[in-house]
Design brief:
This protein is an alpha/beta fold. The chain has helices at residues 37-51, 106-109, 125-142, 159-165, 220-227, 236-241, 245-248, 252-256, 294-304, 311-315, 331-336, 338-342, 356-368, 381-390, 406-412, 423-428, 449-463, 466-477, 483-498, 511-519; strands at residues 21-25, 55-61, 72-80, 83-93, 98-104, 116-117, 120-121, 149-153, 179-183, 191-192, 213-214, 217-219, 230-233, 262-264, 318-325, 347-354, 373-377, 393-396, 416-420, 442-444. The chain is globular, with a radius of gyration of 23 Å. The relative contact order is 0.12.
């Protein structure tokens, strides 16, 4: 089976000398499985690295409904101490030096959800994702494939660096291979009871503060942080924010102990999938120099969501949202400011799903303002693209946002983002009052309904100034957030750790490190998933 490349239209970059062999471990990757931005990163980053001349093997579970076709298969037993767990590896060829390997373990992964059901997280997630981490490494061992680097993503792959530094530290294939961990969202930490350790092939000696122990529990994310050579996260501002109690979710001390090895690399976007000049979901295409067809897209958007198509409705500014409906994404602010926001002469189109109280809130808004509010719960690919292409503004008032992708899609489509200045939103959107002609959007700092309303008001005032608005759109569309830029930054990290001298077993920390790790246990733990 051949996997379609996410960027086959981009011109390849000349191969570098001594290409890296990268083993990437992730719980999801598009097109096989997706619940959020991690899946986009785990598809686009390998493609970018491949175009730079490196070879990437991406390992993830085979979930329900994933068709492996005639892919080559390899059966193996994953060792967990004295026990073994049988799996099948399906090897799927791709382009751009990338291949995907799916771990087939039906009892663990052939389920309706990736991480849980409506009743909550699966109770065996600790073992499920130990199979992912240890299984990815076992695939390399069976294939006698020695990677230059192991790159693990989030808590679900957090044990990969732990296994490398402990049970596999002297393995003839994997011994001494460095590891990088990327944190996509620190709120999810993979916490389980200490009784899991013998089941996942790790000794009780790792249940201590400078290893896996966190508030009396085992944290897979902490293990990944402590045992990796480098820790990256998905924007420079978020890398600084997570060192503070406000954003650290109890991990600020742990991360402070690794601050010298903590790097923020802004995520990229797939500029072939998100391109207003070629987007197949748009009824008309446009560029920064030919913005007029954007009005045709706006009309198609309003028609799809059953909003009026009269002249007044088409002239009214449209504000879009594509999001999970949670407090993290700022929906408590929107709810608190609802009456003032609805007082603006604007149309609202919301696509998403999430916490029941916010779904009820949007249903009520749509009931009260049927001429100006349209809501779609769930996911709708065409609608997502029409919102980005047809709206005039895009709202992301997040409490915290490690990176965010939609604001970058919006910039590319000349849809001006209104964001709270946090994480990747701060790194990508320059406020119109501070950046002058370099401005790309509207941002606000205080996490308050008043600040949100003020920002929306400023954005709508700008919309009423056509010349200034067009300059803002053109500046936004000139930003380069292609994955090749981010890929080069990851290569710098890989190169830095590639030749580091291997430490003896468990990472050796100083007394100061251990004090920092202990202070990391002061605040309530984050979520498991």
């Amino acid at each position: 089976m051949t996997v379609p490349s996410s960027a086959t239209k981009s011109k390849p970059t000349a191969a570098v000398e001594e290409p890296l062999q990268i083993l990437m471990v992730t719980s999801e990757a598009r097109p096989f499985a997706k619940t959020g931005g991690l899946a986009d990163v785990a598809a686009a980053l390998p493609a970018a690295l491949g175009r730079l001349g490196h070879r990437v093997t991406v390992v993830l579970p085979r979930y329900r409904g994933v068709d492996t076709g005639t892919a080559a298969s390899l059966r193996a037993d994953i060792p967990f101490g004295a026990n073994h767990y049988p799996v099948t590896f399906h090897e799927l060829a791709s382009t751009d030096n990338v291949r995907f390997v799916l771990i087939d373990a039906p009892d663990l992964f052939d389920r309706d959800g990736l991480y849980g059901s409506a009743q909550g997280d699966y109770t065996d997630n600790a073992f499920r994702f130990a199979v992912l981490s240890r299984g990815a490494l076992e695939y390399a061992r069976v294939r006698k494939f020695r990677p230059s680097i192991v790159h693990a993503h989030d808590w679900q792959a957090g044990l990969a660096p732990v296994y490398l530094r402990t049970v596999l530290s002297s393995d003839p294939v994997l011994g001494g291979v460095p590891a990088v961990l990327t944190i996509h969202n620190l709120a999810f930490q993979g916490q389980f009871g200490p009784d899991i350790l013998p089941w996942i092939g790790l000794g009780p000696d790792l249940f201590r503060v400078d290893a896996l122990e966190f508030w009396g529990r085992v944290s897979y994310l902490k293990g990944g942080i402590v045992f990796s050579d480098k820790v990256t996260t998905v924007s420079p501002t978020y890398a600084r924010e997570i060192l503070t109690p406000e954003y650290g979710f109890g991990f600020e001390g742990i991360l402070a102990s690794r601050s010298a090895d903590l790097v923020g690399i802004l995520n990229g976007i797939d500029t072939d999938v998100w391109d207003p000049q070629t987007d197949p979901y748009l009824p008309a295409h446009f560029t920064a120099d030919t913005l007029e067809p954007k009005a045709i897209v706006k009309k198609a958007l309003l028609e799809l969501v059953n909003l009026p198509l009269d002249a007044a409705s088409l002239a009214r500014p449209a504000i879009g949202l594509v999001s999970r409906l949670t407090d993290q994404k700022g929906f408590d602010l929107i709810a608190a400011a609802a009456e003032r926001l609805m007082a603006f002469d604007a149309t609202w189109v919301m696509l998403g799903s999430g916490e029941p109280q916010y779904e009820r809130f949007w249903r009520e808004l749509q009931r009260r303002y049927p001429e100006r509010v349209a809501v779609y719960f769930g996911f709708h690919e065409r609608l997502a693209h029409l919102i980005e292409g047809g709206c005039d503004l895009f709202l992301m008032p997040s409490r915290f946002e490690p990176c965010g992708l939609n604001q970058m899609y919006s910039l590319r489509y000349g849809t001006i983002p209104i964001v709270r200045a946090t994480g990747g939103l701060q790194d990508t959107v320059k406020d119109e009052t501070e950046a002058g002609r370099r401005a790309t959007g509207v941002s606000f700092v205080d996490y308050s309904p008043e600040a949100l309303v003020s920002a929306v008001g400023r954005a709508l005032e700008l919309y009423g100034k056509p010349k200034r608005w067009k300059v803002l759109q053109q500046t936004a569309m000139a930003q380069d957030h292609a994955w090749d830029v981010s890929g080069r930054e990851y290569v710098k990290v890989y190169r830095e750790v590639e030749n580091r001298k291997e430490t003896d077993g468990i990472r050796k920390g100083t007394d100061a490190d251990r004090r920092e790790l202990r202070t990391g246990n002061r605040r309530r733990p984050g979520r498991a998933r």
